[in-house]
Amino acid sequence: MKDAVLRAVKKAKETSKPRNFTQSMEMSINLQGLDMKKTQNRIKEDFVLPNGRGKDVKIGVFASGDLALRAKKENLSVFDQEDIEKFAKDKKLAKKIANTHDFFIAQTDFMTLVGKSLGPIFAPRGKTPSPLPPTASLEPILNKLKKTVKIKSTNHPVIHMLVGSEKMEDELLAENISEIIKFFEKKFEKGFDNIKSIYIKTSMGPAVKLEDFK
């Protein structure tokens, strides 16, 4: 499988026109023999890519005191209680904050307030914050989030996901993709028989079919 994935990655890059920005590398998996409306077939996963996303992620932190200071030193967006209350009153601003950040972290004693004030906006977007005790180190959770992609199914039998960026080495992208395919193979009752086809592409380029994924 790995050689086939590597060939597809190379072809996806070669057939993609140059852009004035770094494109993401994406994968689409078409499913078969599954009713995606059934709860047992739904997927909502924070998947840690072995070689990371290949691009910076924007992380927001709801915190105060020492944790807020440490987050600012990491150049993260920091929001305090006053900000949360402001976002709760301004839904348009809250949506903008949610849409312009990849992930959020919340000091544990902020979780209830964030959930009550911003849950209806953040949760449907998959942006519910990860809780962090005020005295905990930021490094482990930041390292994890920088490598994490969200895999979420809908009622339709196709799932789209980020697998890296076009600037990543082909071999590293191939490993990311291979690990995601293994995840899906284990996730479904019939394994590969529930996967109809897989396509790989840059964000603006044509889709390249993965010929052999088993």
Automatic annotation (TrEMBL):
It holds the Pfam family Ribosomal_L1. PANTHER family: 54S RIBOSOMAL PROTEIN L1, MITOCHONDRIAL, LARGE RIBOSOMAL SUBUNIT PROTEIN UL1M. GO terms for biological process: regulation of translation; translation. The keyword Ribonucleoprotein applies. One of its GO terms (molecular function) is tRNA binding. Keywords: Repressor, Ribonucleoprotein, Ribosomal protein, RNA-binding, rRNA-binding, Translation regulation, tRNA-binding. This is Large ribosomal subunit protein uL1. The keyword Ribonucleoprotein applies. Binds directly to 23S rRNA. Probably involved in E site tRNA release. Protein L1 is also a translational repressor protein, it controls the translation of its operon by binding to its mRNA. GO terms for cellular component: large ribosomal subunit. It comes from Candidatus Methanofastidiosum methylothiophilum. Signal peptide: none annotated.
